[in-house]
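Priority: medium. Attachment 1 of 2:
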């Protein structure tokens, strides 16, 4: 009998499935559902229901169940040996709120997603209630941000009190899917785990407890609506009898605790030992790294998260990354290859021309109303060549400027996301971070979920194999595209990094000993 393990990734735009054979160390099956295309009845755009209300980003949680069932039907139709799947694990987009009543019905028909920015007032009220930012960080290890879940719950309680009163369970996305997999309305398991829970800004990742102050501020009966938080490295139960009968699963198929997509994205890129950093290059950008001790950023700019293994995963997220790049491609009608060739013709550092790319506000630093800043451009400099180089460097410098807050000695950066295919993106990241950079092939979070399921299953069956040993054979690094720092570029970027940091602080009214004009002069003199 084969040792097969399944991992699902419930992302904003799609549902992905990966099934691995642990003994053969190979991916046997992969598939995905695109919500916009395959489930048009939900009227989504990039997985989000269309709305004219600014800052609103919501989806119907039933869409995630329908997409899961579609993948099960397709798997069954392919004659895949479903009965050999030993365990299933779910990766879910973090922070989304799902609300159920005592009958297992949705008490709020929509889920506010991670990119819903309609709860800033609630963030401010919660922060004020505990006495300011530093006291908030002491309470939950993080600041309150609209992306996190606490303000979503408070918004629900304030603006929809009748529905809130009927609510008996508040889930995150992957907890809701686990509840369905273990029976749903027929006694589905209602639990959470520490990785995803630590991203709620309601539960302290180091202290491993709920904040009584914030819970009470939101609602006196909130604690009764929050499921128990169990360890991330254990199963929560067996698959439901209904799914056994419909699709042919083994009744003993286990349902893993699951975790957030960032946590499983780390596992799926082999980021399970100190020194490896995973950077995801998408519309937004993230950087995270495995740590054995919790890191609490005193400014709250680095998210303090638990991971899916009983350790920790500090994470940086910038909300501006591919947006400026993609807009530039459209504006000048450029292909990715054409962009690469243009950038190569402009010297690194762009001779002191710099863009701080806060095009749509920014998450790190926490500036929801920020605007971009252009520095060092002379008359006639706003041309295609300089703008391409400055936008590329600006995005990566913005990512680096936040990342340097992490107490990490980086051995290697592993890239995921569409932009990891770009030579100039890889090389510029290597030069600015002064670290080797290599792209990872595969379905990050879904693969990470499957690998986690295998690891937990082995532990629970008296085979305590270290996670890195299970993960290593499945990680495909594209060695032909590995980039190394170029010494002369890195030297230039050391000055540019100082300039970016100096300008960022001065724009925000924070003191900086450096003079940006002197730094620019130093850059110009390098050429």
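Attachment 2 of 2:
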């Amino acid at each position: 009998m084969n040792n097969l393990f399944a991992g699902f990734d419930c992302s904003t735009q799609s549902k992905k499935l990966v099934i691995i054979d642990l003994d053969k160390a190979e991916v046997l099956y992969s598939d995905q559902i695109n919500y916009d295309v395959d489930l048009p009845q939900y009227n989504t755009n990039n997985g989000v229901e269309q709305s004219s209300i600014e800052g609103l980003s919501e989806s119907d949680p039933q869409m995630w169940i329908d997409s899961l069932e579609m993948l099960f039907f397709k798997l069954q139709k392919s004659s895949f040996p479903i009965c050999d799947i030993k365990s299933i694990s779910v990766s879910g987009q973090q922070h989304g709120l799902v609300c159920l009543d005592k009958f297992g019905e949705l008490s709020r028909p929509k889920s506010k997603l991670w990119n819903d920015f309609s709860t800033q007032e609630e963030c401010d009220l919660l922060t004020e209630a505990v006495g300011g930012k530093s006291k908030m960080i002491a309470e939950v290890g993080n600041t309150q941000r609209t992306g996190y879940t606490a303000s979503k719950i408070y918004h629900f309680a304030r603006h929809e009190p009748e529905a809130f009163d009927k609510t008996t369970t508040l889930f995150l996305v992957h907890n809701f899917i686990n509840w369905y997999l273990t029976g749903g309305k027929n006694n589905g398991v209602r639990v959470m785990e520490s990785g995803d829970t630590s991203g709620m800004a309601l539960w302290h990742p180091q202290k491993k407890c709920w904040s009584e102050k914030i819970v009470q501020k939101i609602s006196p009966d909130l604690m009764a609506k929050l499921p128990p938080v169990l360890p991330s490295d254990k199963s929560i139960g067996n698959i439901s009898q209904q799914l056994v009968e419909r699709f042919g699963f083994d009744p003993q198929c286990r349902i893993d605790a699951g975790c957030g997509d960032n946590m499983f994205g780390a596992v799926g890129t082999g980021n399970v030992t100190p020194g490896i950093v995973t950077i995801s290059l998408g519309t937004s950008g993230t950087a995270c790294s495995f740590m054995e001790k919790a890191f609490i950023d005193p400014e709250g700019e680095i998210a303090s998260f638990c991971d899916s293994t009983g350790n920790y995963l500090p994470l940086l997220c910038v909300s501006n990354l591919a947006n400026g790049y993609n807009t530039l491609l459209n504006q000048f009608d450029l292909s990715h290859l054409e962009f690469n060739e243009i950038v190569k013709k402009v010297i690194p550092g762009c001779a002191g021309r710099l863009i701080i790319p806060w095009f749509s506000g920014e998450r790190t630093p926490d500036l929801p109303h920020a605007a971009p800043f252009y520095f060092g451009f002379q008359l006639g400099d706003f041309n295609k060549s300089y703008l391409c180089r400055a936008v590329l460097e600006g995005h990566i410098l913005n990512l680096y400027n936040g990342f340097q807050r992490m107490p990490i000695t980086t051995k290697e950066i592993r890239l995921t996301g569409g932009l990891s295919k770009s030579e100039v993106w890889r090389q510029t990241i290597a030069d600015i971070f002064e670290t080797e950079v290599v792209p990872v092939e595969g379905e990050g979070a879904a693969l990470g979920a499957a690998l986690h399921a295998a690891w937990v299953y082995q532990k629970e069956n008296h085979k305590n194999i270290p996670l890195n040993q299970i993960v290593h054979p499945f990680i495909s690094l594209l060695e032909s595209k590995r980039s190394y720092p170029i010494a002369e570029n890195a030297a230039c970027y050391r000055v540019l990094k100082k300039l970016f940091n100096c300008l960022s602080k001065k724009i925000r009214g924070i003191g900086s000993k450096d003079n940006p004009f002197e730094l620019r002069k130093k850059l110009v003199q390098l050429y």
